[in-house]
């Protein structure tokens, strides 16, 4: 999984300047530690230094060409012949495997505002049942009745673990509706969405899946 020489990307959530992404290279690895070159912020060419305890979300590419994501923190510096930054390795149980071009779905209840594109119905707010980078399922009111392939304007409210909230506009196409716990669940596919907005949703799904894995790990101990 952890291969010496591979590129590693690190995301830092800075409360003052927002998210920053750094790039580095894996130099060595042990059972619970990863040693990397000092990271360089993307779009810059100067190495960055971080204090012990700094937390990152990182992703690497595995030998199977899938992307693996997990949370880590700085354990310190290794002052050998080659100075290295030492990161914690939480173990494979905490890795999230993301197949390239795959939009994995997670259970997520978020607030969603729904508006008609042509005035066919009155705007309403609802909550999601699940979410992915490619679509979502929403709890629907009895009215209006949506038609297959009908497009709607939606605004998704994403509450991140850091406390920040992002509002993501998406044009979604209605696929079908099914019964769900005595209510109506509508299935939607994202039909018009900017890549930057989709990435926000994918990042939110990563966070949710990591959160679920941590809860499962705690409940099994």
UniProtKB/TrEMBL annotation:
It comes from Salipaludibacillus neizhouensis. Pfam families: PilZ, PilZNR. Residues 3-90 form the Type III secretion system flagellar brake protein YcgR PilZN domain. InterPro entries: PilZ_domain, T3SS_YcgR_PilZN. One of its GO terms (molecular function) is cyclic-di-GMP binding. This is Pilus assembly protein PilZ. Residues 99-207 form the PilZ domain. Gene3D superfamilies: predicted glycosyltransferase like domains.
């Amino acid at each position: 999984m952890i291969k010496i020489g591979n590129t590693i990307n690190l995301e830092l959530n800075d409360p003052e300047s927002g998210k920053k992404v750094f790039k580095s290279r894996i130099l060595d690895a042990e059972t619970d530690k990863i040693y990397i070159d000092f990271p360089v912020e993307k779009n810059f060419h100067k190495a960055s230094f971080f204090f012990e305890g700094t937390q990152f979300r990182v992703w690497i590419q595995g030998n199977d060409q899938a992307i693996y994501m997990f949370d880590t923190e700085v354990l310190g510096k290794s002052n050998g012949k080659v100075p290295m930054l030492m990161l914690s390795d939480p173990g494979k149980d905490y890795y999230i495997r993301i197949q390239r071009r795959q939009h994995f779905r997670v259970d997520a209840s978020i607030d969603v505002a729904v508006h008609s594109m042509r005035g066919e119905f009155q705007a309403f707010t609802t909550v999601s049942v699940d979410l992915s980078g490619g679509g979502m399922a929403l709890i629907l009111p009895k009215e209006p009745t949506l038609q297959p392939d009908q497009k709607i304007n939606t605004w998704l409210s994403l509450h991140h673990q850091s406390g920040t909230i992002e509002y993501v506009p998406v044009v979604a196409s209605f696929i079908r509706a099914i019964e769900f716990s005595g209510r109506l669940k509508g299935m939607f596919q994202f039909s018009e969405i900017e890549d930057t907005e989709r990435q926000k949703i994918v990042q939110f799904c990563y966070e949710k899946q990591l959160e679920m894995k941590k809860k499962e790990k705690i409940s099994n101990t």
